[in-house]
Hints:
Blueprint: H1 8-11, E1 32-38, H2 45-56, H3 60-73, E2 75-82, H4 83-99, E3 105-110
Antiparallel strand pairs: 1-2, 1-3
The protein binds L-tyrosinamide.
Amino acid sequence: MTEKKNNQRDVDPGRQSGVAEKTDTRTKRPDMYKVLLLNDDYTPMEFVVQLLRQVFHLGEEQAVRIMLSVHQEGVGVCGIYSFEVAETKVAQVISASRSSEHPLQCTMEKA
Length: 111
Ligand code: TYC
């Protein structure tokens, strides 16, 4: 007999062929995104506070704190979320602001 029957390459064609065999089963934490609120000269403070409470589920005190921080510093973080959740929050802020004809700006960036 010149050839061995059923050698490992015949049984498992992926073997020694350069085909990746190991599957990485580790769970990766999703990238997180900061939702940022920007200051402007026109949006009423009370409107910003109510929006922060509704969209980010903040209490009155925390909402006032963030609003005042944005008012004074120009920009502030409302929360940190997965990409999809952050995108939704930004859309909700912009939508509610435009509905009330306020120029409030909201954006997101990788945390
Ligand atoms: N600067 C606004 C005012 O004086 C208030 C304001 C705060 C607007 C935060 C936007 O993201 C903002 N009425």
